[in-house]
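Exercise 7.
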Amino acid sequence: MFLRLGLTAFGGPAAHVAAMEDELVTRRRWVTPAEFADLVGASNLIPGPNSTELAIHLGFRRAGWPGLLVAGAAFIGPAVLVVWAVAALYGAFGARAEVAALLVGMQPVVLAVVVQAIWRLRRSMVAQRWTAGLAVTCLVAMAAGATELQVLAGAVLASACWSWWPRSRHGTGPTVGAAALMPISNVPSAVALAAAATTTTTAALTVGGIFWSFAKMGSVLFGSGYVLLSFLRREFLLRQPLLTDGQLLDAIAIGQVTPGPVFSAATFVGYQLGGHAGAAAATAGIFLPAFVAVAVTAPLVHRMRTSPRLATLLDGVNAAALALMTTVVITMTRSLAFDLWTLGILGGASVLLLTTRIGSGWLLLLGALLGAFRLLFSIA
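Solution. The predicted structure, written as tokens, is:
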């Protein structure tokens, strides 16, 4: 069943969650609506691809540890295999003028997709004044040169202080048990350790280095899958100039037009860095933390879902994630060579995404066709 969902799950995390709800709540009745909502909330509270973690949670709820592994692998597998094949074709033919034209037409659509995600997520991710202020602070910090992990660590600490301050001030103390608060107390130190780990630079990425780079990302990456673009850019363009902005946009585009999680873009990037071994290492690295996080938190789903402090922590991390997405759009818009043709695709795609129900996959295909049309007729 999860294999079928993985083969047909186009449209991003929201569409994936809707498909799982229809299949497992309405049709099969494996879980109740309340249980499903709890699992969705628990998936949002841990780092990694949310829809993949929801599939893993549902597999665990249905069949224990074997179900956890099978559901996750079945949901991820189709996307990874498709992206892997496309990555191999990209490596062989990506330099051809025809292929380059298709990808150049898709790149501004990718930016439009991220802009649309930012616009639609803004209300849910910065719904309060303090989260809006935190998002602005994170934007300023990124402009000043802070790294993604430093921004996330700062957001975690600020959110933890915010969640404790009203209770300390009024002397009411914690409202949940110590067991429920244990994950909160460990988050700042975990993020700080991950941030420290990124200060080491690998001169030449080995397979182990690729795995470690993606495992770090998967361990701390909250929010939309599009935040991955910011981490990829920091790791493989700024710290180690191994890829270009265009290649990163191509990776997200491929992850978007294929079924399953956008995180499958890691497979594409891994292939560009180290061939088939690199693709395998990147895939294992980006998804392994999701399996571990679900395995650790599955017994604590109810406590996590009802913990007000964890909810506050998630609010702060989401605000930081929105700031990271905004920063990477601004940066990549400036770094790519835009002309009237490209700006027209970016503007048109943005308008269509914000005002219609057309899927991003169709727009990416349309962008590719426009790129081919431009090459064919030599439109300057």
